[in-house]
Structures are given as structure tokens and as C-alpha cells.
# Entry
Amino acid sequence: MTTTEQYGRFIAGDYLDYQARYRRRLRENDRVLIDILRAHLGDGPARVLDVGCSTGNLLYHLRHAMPHLDLVGGDLYQPIIEHCTADPELAGITFRPMDITDLPVDDPYDAVVANIVLFRFDDEVFRAALHSIARALAPGGWFVAIDFYHEWDQDLVIRERSETHPDGLLIHVRPRETVREALRDAGFEDPRFQPFHMPIDLPRPTEPNDVSSHTRMMADGTRLCFRGSIHQPWCFVIARMPEMN
Ligand SMILES: C[S@@+](CC[C@H](N)C(=O)[O-])C[C@H]1O[C@@H](n2cnc3c(N)ncnc32)[C@H](O)[C@@H]1O
# Structure
């Protein structure tokens, strides 16, 4: 089964219901991401791509939070792009099918966002995606993403077989140092990491086949986020292309 077919099966399941819940209610990580974009792009006009945009929820909230932005959504999965293009609540946002490893370079972006996309990729595709994002950015443009990045020298690949992913979902949990090096190799400067701490309790699912995220409170008052038995070290990465001399 190709990756596109896998996404098709996945997105046809409970996934659309999951995303629908966050159309009106902003996810906490998206709230932080919008603050990061605001801090780095300021109030001027800017062109922003959300690649792996899925149902366009982040773009919906971005348009309300930063109405001066020129917003583009891209996804590998063509039916989700058609879904977004037909959605009246997303009018004014441009949607295009695109592959994060081969992004269009005709009209450079001031920022590219890729949320919860790169963890699926092996190292070769991960690096190809970073190079492609670098090529798609204007000089001085920003790359921002949330994914699984941790502080240990421990490169993890977890194969999850679950009800939602019966064929096996590969989850890459990467050391920040490896990612920093891959970003520099792609041409980015000063990559930095901003761990995301879930500020609310997510209830533990009652059924063992439900692996949606839940939190556990630590003794120091922070929450750890789990997908079933897997700890998810959510972390933002922020990196910039050099300004032109
Ligand atoms: C787990 S979803 C994340 C969706 C959304 N960004 C979010 O934060 O909820 C991953 C998305 O990335 C898309 N995707 C996977 N591989 C891709 C690729 N090579 N290029 C562009 N999009 C891709 C999938 O179709 C899916 O919509």
C-alpha cells in the first residue's frame, strides 16, 4: 500500500472527526505556533505555507489571528485539498496539492509550517523535506514545525500497530542535535528548539484501542503527553534561512 493510500484510509476514518473538533476550538499547540509566527513575522504582509495542512484548521485560525497574511495550504493527499478548496470557511486561502520533499519554488514563502508531518519520514526523506523547505523559502524566511524532538542522544523508530494503523505506523523520535545538524546541512541558520508543554489535562481514554493523546501530571507540575504507551516529546523547531547579502 502506498503512503498516499495509507493516508486515504486513515483520513477516511475518525481523523476528520478529530480535526472537526478543532475548527472552532484552537488546539493548544496551534495557539503557541501562531504566537511564534506573530513574533517572527511581525505585522507586515507575509506569505505563509502550511504544508501537510490536512483539513486547514491551522490556516482557518491563522487567518483570524493574522488577517494580513497571504495563506497557502498544501498536502500530498489530493482529496483533502479538494475538501479544503470547497470549504466556504476557508475561502481566500489558496490550496494546492504538494509534496513536502518537492515544494514549488516559483513564489517564495516568508514562512513554511509543517506540523506533525516529519515524524513519519525516515532520515533520507526527512533530510529531503528540509532541503525542499529551504529552497521554497525567501531569504530570511522562517521554518516552524512541531514534532517529536528530545534532548537525548537516542534516535528512536517505533512501529505502532493499532486499530487506526493496522499496517503499522512508523514514528520517528529524533534527537534535537541530529535535527540541528540536518537543518544546518539544508542551509538554515541558528536552529532552536522550544519544548511544548501541554497546559491542560487530556483525559486518559477508557478503551485500550483508543490511543488518542492523553496527559499525566508529573511531580513538578508539568504534564507528559502520551499516545497509548508512547511518550510524545512535543517540541517546536524554529529555523531561519540566511538574509541575502
Ligand atoms: C498527522 S497529519 C497532520 C495534519 C496537520 N498539520 C495537523 O497539525 O493536524 C499529516 C498530514 O501530512 C500530509 N502529508 C504526508 N506526507 C506528505 C508529504 N510528503 N507532503 C505533503 N503532505 C504530506 C498528510 O496527508 C496529512 O494531511
